[in-house]
C-alpha cells in the first residue's frame, strides 16, 4: 500500500479521523516550508497537502491566491517544491505528502518527468485541480505504477456518473469540495455535506476527505462526523501570512493542535 493508504488504514483501525492541512510551498517565507511541514506533523497532521504555486488558480479564493502570488514573487517553482519534499523526507519517512496544484506546471515540467521527479522526492499523491478523470487516465496510471495516488476533487454539483468515473481511477482518497465556491468561503452547510457523503461512498471506494470552508474546531468536528478526513487550508494561511518568520510554525501548530484535539473527541465513532 502507499503511505496514504497505510495512514488511512491505521486511522480507521484506531477509530480516528485524518487531519490534512494545506499550505502553499514557499509561503509566507521561502525557507519556512519544511519547518512548517514538520511542525504541522508534530501538531497532529496525518497527511500534508503542499500547494504548487500557480498564477491562475481557478479553484482558490483570495487567501490562497495571495499565497501563490507571494511564493511566485520569490520564484518558487515546481523544482523548488520537490526540493522541499526531499528535505522533509530526510527526517520524516512516514507522513504522506500530496502535491496539489494545476495542470500548467505539470505540463511545463513534462507529465512523465513530473511523476519520476515526484517519486524520487518522496511525494505520495498528486491532485491536479484541472485534470478531469476522463482526460488523465494515462497520468493516473503512471502515478499508480510509481506507487503514488491519484487524487480527485468532487463537488456538490457532481453527478453519480461523474463520481463513478472518479471512483474508477482514484486512489488514496477523494477530496469533496463542500460548497459551490472557492477556497476560504465562509458558508459551509454541514447538513448538505452529511447528505452528499453517502452518495459519494456509493460510487467511490476510497476514503472521503472534505475541505473548503472549514475554519475552526466546530466545523471540523461536524464535517468529520460524516467523513474520513478534514482538509484545512485557507484558515492556516490567513493565520500565518502576516507573521514574522519565527512565529509561522508556532501559530500554525497551535491552531492544528486545537483541531486535532477536537477531532479526537470523535474517536470510535463511525461515519
Description:
Helix 2 packs parallel to helix 12 and helix 10 crosses helix 12 (245-264). Helix content is 49%, strand content 14%. The chain has twelve helices and nine strands. It has helices spanning 3-14, 33-42, 62-73, 78-89, 103-109, 111-121, 137-145, 160-169, 190-203, 217-224, 234-240, 245-264; strands at residues 18-24, 48-51, 97-101, 125-128, 149-151, 153-154, 174-177, 208-211, 229-232. A nine-stranded parallel sheet has the order 5-4-3-2-1-9-8-7-6. The protein has 271 residues and is α/β, with parallel strands linked by helices.
Put the structure in a nutshell.
The protein has 271 residues and is an alpha/beta fold.
Write the layout of secondary structure elements.
Layout: H1 3-14, E1 18-24, H2 33-42, E2 48-51, H3 62-73, H4 78-89, E3 97-101, H5 103-109, H6 111-121, E4 125-128, H7 137-145, E5 149-151, E6 153-154, H8 160-169, E7 174-177, H9 190-203, E8 208-211, H10 217-224, E9 229-232, H11 234-240, H12 245-264
Helix pairs in contact: 2-4, 2-12, 4-6, 10-12, 11-12
Amino acid at each position: 500500500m502507499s503511505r496514504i493508504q497505510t495512514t488511512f488504514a491505521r486511522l480507521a483501525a484506531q477509530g480516528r479521523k485524518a487531519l490534512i492541512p494545506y499550505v502553499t510551498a514557499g509561503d509566507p517565507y521561502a525557507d519556512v516550508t519544511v519547518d512548517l511541514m514538520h511542525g504541522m506533523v508534530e501538531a497532529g497532521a496525518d497527511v500534508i497537502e503542499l500547494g504548487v504555486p500557480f498564477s491562475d488558480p481557478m479553484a482558490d479564493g483570495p487567501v490562497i491566491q495571495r499565497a501563490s502570488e507571494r511564493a511566485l514573487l520569490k520564484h518558487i517553482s515546481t523544482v523548488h517544491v520537490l526540493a522541499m519534499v526531499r528535505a522533509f523526507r530526510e527526517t520524516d519517512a512516514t507522513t504522506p505528502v500530496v502535491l496539489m496544484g494545476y495542470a500548467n506546471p505539470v505540463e511545463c515540467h513534462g507529465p512523465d518527468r513530473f511523476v519520476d521527479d515526484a517519486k524520487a522526492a518522496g511525494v505520495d499523491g498528486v491532485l491536479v485541480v484541472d485534470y478531469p478523470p476522463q482526460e488523465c487516465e494515462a497520468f493516473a496510471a503512471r502515478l499508480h505504477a510509481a506507487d503514488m495516488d491519484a487524487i480527485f476533487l468532487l463537488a456538490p454539483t457532481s453527478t453519480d456518473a461523474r463520481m463513478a468515473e472518479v471512483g474508477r481511477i482514484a486512489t488514496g482518497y477523494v477530496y469533496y469540495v463542500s460548497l459551490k465556491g472557492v477556497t476560504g468561503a465562509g458558508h459551509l452547510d454541514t447538513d448538505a455535506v452529511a447528505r452528499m457523503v453517502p452518495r459519494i461512498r456509493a460510487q467511490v471506494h476510497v476514503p472521503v476527505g472534505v475541505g473548503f470552508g472549514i475554519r475552526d474546531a466546530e466545523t471540523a468536528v461536524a464535517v468529520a462526523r460524516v467523513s474520513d478526513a478534514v482538509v484545512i487550508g485557507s484558515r492556516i494561511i490567513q493565520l500565518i501570512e502576516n507573521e514574522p518568520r519565527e512565529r509561522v510554525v508556532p501559530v500554525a501548530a497551535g491552531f492544528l493542535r486545537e483541531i486535532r484535539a477536537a477531532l479526537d473527541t470523535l474517536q470510535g465513532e463511525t461515519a
